[in-house]
Amino acid sequence: SRYGPKMPLAVDCTAELVRCKVLDSSGKLRSHELILSYGLALVRFVNLITERKQKMVNIPLRQLAREVDIPIWVVDLRHELTHGKLPQLALCRKGCDVVLDWLRKTYWSRQLGNNLCEETEDEDEQEDTEANTEMNSDTWE
């Protein structure tokens, strides 16, 4: 709310993608409507993120995506959504998950001082340790 109409792109994209996931889990929209919702959010993500890297000369989206480490298949999905036949809902869901993960690693972990990534790794290590502890017969004795 502090930014008003100048919301950071990553925040705006995250909000749109999360909104799609919430709508999807609500069960209120049909498959076609969900594809359109996910599609718009994914197209906007690729366009907005790569737009910043665009110079005076047009650079192909695939090259720009490679520079910022966005999977090429997400750019191809954006192309299909924009110019081709609409993809299956499962592919849109997967694209949303991959892009949200990219945003988490690239934007949100920086905002939180990498605590988000470290917490995830620490939680995984703690779960592994707990699982190993449960399996250790000496602990039961």
From TrEMBL:
Region named Disordered: 118-141
GO biological process, one term: maturation of 5.8S rRNA
GO MF annotation, one: endonuclease activity
Stored InterPro entries: Las1
GO CC field: Las1 complex; preribosome, large subunit precursor
Annotated PANTHER family: RIBOSOMAL BIOGENESIS PROTEIN LAS1L
Protein name, UniProt field: LAS1L protein
